[in-house]
Task: inverse folding
C-alpha cells in the first residue's frame, strides 16, 4: 500500500468509567456523528486505555491523531497539540502525563524500537486531576474542550485533502 493511500486514523483513548479520563472517547463519539468532508480513508476508532495494543493501530497508517486526557498543570479543559516526535525525543515543552499505566510517550518510544511509525499528533485535553472513583460523568470544563479538539483535528486533516 502506498503511503499516499494509507489511511489517516483518529484514535480516542480513555476509560468511560473513570470520569474525565473518558474525554478522548467523547471526541471519537462526536466525530462519528459529524461529516468529515473530502477525506477518504479516514479511520475513527476507540483505542481504549492505550496500552501496548495501541501499536497495532499505528500499522499501515500515514498519519495518526491520538486524542487523550492529559495532566500538564494547565487550566482544566485546555487543549494541547503535541507532535509525536517531540514526545519520543523528550523535547515537548511541558511534561505529558497520561492517566493510564503506560503513557502515550512510553508506547511511542517502544514502538519506535520495534516498528516504523507514521506521523503522529496527540491532541491532549487537560483534565486537572486524576479520577479516583468510578464515574461515567465528565466535568463541564472538560466537555467544553470536545469542540476545540474537533476543530484541531479538522485542521490536521485539512492539510491532507
Result:
Amino acid at each position: 500500500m502506498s503511503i499516499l493511500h494509507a489511511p489517516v486514523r483518529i484514535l480516542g483513548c480513555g476509560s468511560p468509567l473513570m470520569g474525565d479520563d473518558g474525554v478522548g472517547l467523547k471526541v471519537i463519539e462526536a466525530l462519528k456523528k459529524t461529516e468529515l468532508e473530502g477525506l477518504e480513508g479516514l479511520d475513527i476508532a476507540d483505542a481504549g486505555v492505550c496500552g501496548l495494543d495501541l501499536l497495532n493501530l499505528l500499522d499501515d497508517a500515514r498519519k495518526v491523531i491520538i486524542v487523550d486526557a492529559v495532566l500538564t498543570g494547565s487550566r482544566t479543559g485546555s487543549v494541547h497539540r503535541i507532535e509525536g516526535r517531540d514526545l519520543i525525543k523528550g523535547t515537548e515543552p511541558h511534561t505529558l502525563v497520561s492517566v493510564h499505566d503506560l503513557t502515550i510517550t512510553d508506547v511511542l518510544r517502544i514502538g519506535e524500537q520495534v516498528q516504523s511509525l507514521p506521523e503522529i499528533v496527540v491532541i491532549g485535553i487537560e483534565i486537572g486531576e486524576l479520577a479516583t472513583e468510578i464515574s461515567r460523568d465528565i466535568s463541564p470544563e472538560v466537555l467544553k474542550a470536545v469542540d476545540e479538539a474537533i476543530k484541531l483535528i479538522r485542521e490536521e486533516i485539512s492539510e491532507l485533502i
